[in-house]
Amino acid sequence: QAGGRLPASAAAQFLVSFDALQSTTEEFLVSPGVSGLEDLPEVPFAARERREALQKVESQATLLKLKDEALWQVEQQRRALAAEVTELSKVAADLRDTCDGYATELSRRLD
Q1: What's the gap between Cα 51 and its chain centre?
Q2: What's the confidence (pLDDT) of residue 98?
Q3: What averages of pLDDT result for each successive group of 10 residues across the chain (111 residues)?
Q4: What separation in angstroms does the CA of 99 have from each of 6, 87, 103, 111?
Q5: Read out DSSP for 26-85?
Q6: Which of 34, 43, 87, 96 could form an SS bridge with 47, CB 3.0 to 4.6 Å?
Q7: Rounded to whole angstroms, how far apart are CA atoms 41 and 54?
Q8: Are the beta carbons of 34 and 51 closer than 8 angstroms?
Q9: CA distance 85 to 91
Q10: Residue 27 in contact with residue 66, Cβ under 8 Å?
Q11: pLDDT in tens, 71-98
């Protein structure tokens, strides 16, 4: 649309999906990493280090998955909007042609 603005329905749809993804991400970041491991009593240093590394990898994998889902949704919306712009450009060209035809006919009748 003019000025790069999204149609109201597409913008609303994006906001709903964005809010859901943001909520899921925030829940993930607040929740503990590998379940069950945090309840272990005094774990030796090497095991604790390994547990922390596993939690970090798990967290990164989940965040990457959430990022990929968000990017895919944005790409799908971009494709839909590009198709809509193409269609609207064709309609605008048809309207211009119609108006040009009316202008030509009107000037011919007035001359």
Answers
A1: 33
A2: 97
A3: 56 74 74 55 74 86 89 93 95 96 93 82
A4: 27, 19, 6, 18
A5: HHHHHS-SSTTGGG-SS--HHHHHHHHHHHHHHHHHHHHHHHHHHHHHHHHHHHHHHHHH
A6: 43
A7: 18
A8: yes
A9: 10
A10: no
A11: 999 999 999 999 999 999 999 999 999 9
User: In terms of Cα–Cα distance, which of 72, 15, 67, 73 is closest to 6?
Assistant: 15
How many angstroms separate the CA atoms of 60 and 62, rounded? 5
Spell out the residues 6+ positions from residue 88 whose beta carbon is closer than 8 angstroms to its own.
none
What is the C-alpha separation between 38 and 52, in angstroms, rounded? 10
- d(CA 100, CA 106) in angstroms, rounded, equals 10
Long-range contacts made by residues 72-80, C-beta under 8 angstroms, separation at least 24? 73/14, 73/17, 73/21, 74/14, 77/10, 77/13, 77/14, 80/10
